[in-house]
Amino acid sequence: MSANDLFFKLSNGALGELEQRRKAYTKTFWKRFLLWWGITIPAVLALLVFLQDQPVPAIIVGGVSLIGGSIWLGIIHSRFKKQFVKDFKSTVIPAVVKAVDDRLSYDVNRGLMPEYHASALYPKRIDRLRAEDTITGVFGETRFSFGEIHTEYKTVTTDSKGRRQEHWHTIFQGLFFVGDFNKHFVGETIVDKDTMEKALGKLGRKFQSWNTERSGELIRMDNPAFEKQFAIYSTDEQECRYILSPSLMERILELNTRTGGAICLSFRNSNVYIAYTFKQNLFEPRIFSPSLKMEDVQLLMDLISLMSGIVEDLNLNTRIWTKE
């Protein structure tokens, strides 16, 4: 089914009903907003006129109204959004997933944080995270899952006046994939994005070899194109070269090209883990504009196809090894 056909079908079903609710809500919301200001502004102006020498009461009334109105509208909006998102994800997203491939299943609440940690791709301390919207499938003999993850760490600074500020930094945001590789790995192999060597040349490669966040040694592969895109670390060089066969390196390069150079991988615990950096929150509907547009459907279908297609792209169903 094409994205256009699916969007038409959704618009005449679950999405159409949700859009009617959304439009009714936003209309009511703006009426309440205008009513709030329509009462507050005249009240403040009246106080300023009658109490010309005492502006404090007007300031107090304006401040209380601003805070109270914000809380009031915030509570109303939070309640609506929570239910709207729940209904959207229970009806629209599963339909999009099944339209791509009916072997896929969608779980709004499941997160892949255990798999994220097991991958060893991002060892940095996590202070805040969001992990949800996981899609699972079994293609041939290969079981796999992928879903949205956003992890962050916090730093605190103090300015010259002693004011404390918190700063949040993204560790990873995007789609995270885990698939069965059908081999118990003796060591771990990580295929990282090559940023240092691209920027600093041979000096950058020296810095890469000193990367304390990576276990094992920096490995040189006999594929110049692969070396240009990735830095490879492994605790077992022989196993690393066995895993990263010439054909698999070419397949990874193709996948990297399709994602705009936004992936890194690891091979651990008999699994392949792939992190695809992607800034957009894919499964969340909008509230103050159409919740889902045709181009959104196309993007979702393309990305679901891309991630589920990794099984074929990396030839995971070809059982070169058997688990020992």
Describe the structure.
The chain is of the alpha+beta class. It has one domain (3-184, 269-313). Helices cover 48% and strands 23% of the residues. It contains 11 helices and 9 strands. It has a 9-stranded antiparallel beta sheet. A hairpin with a 2-residue loop joins strand 8 and strand 9 (271-277). Helix 1 crosses helix 10 and helix 2 (14-50) packs antiparallel against helix 3 (56-100). The longest helix is centred in the N-terminal third of the chain and has 45 residues, at 56-100. The radius of gyration is 26 Å and the shape is flat. The two termini are 41 Å apart.
Summarize the structure.
The protein has helices at residues 3-11, 14-50, 56-100, 113-119, 196-200, 202-209, 224-229, 237-243, 246-258, 294-308, 310-313, and strands spanning 105-107, 128-139, 142-158, 164-180, 189-193, 217-219, 230-234, 263-268, 271-277. The chain is an alpha+beta fold. The chain is flat and about 85 Å long.
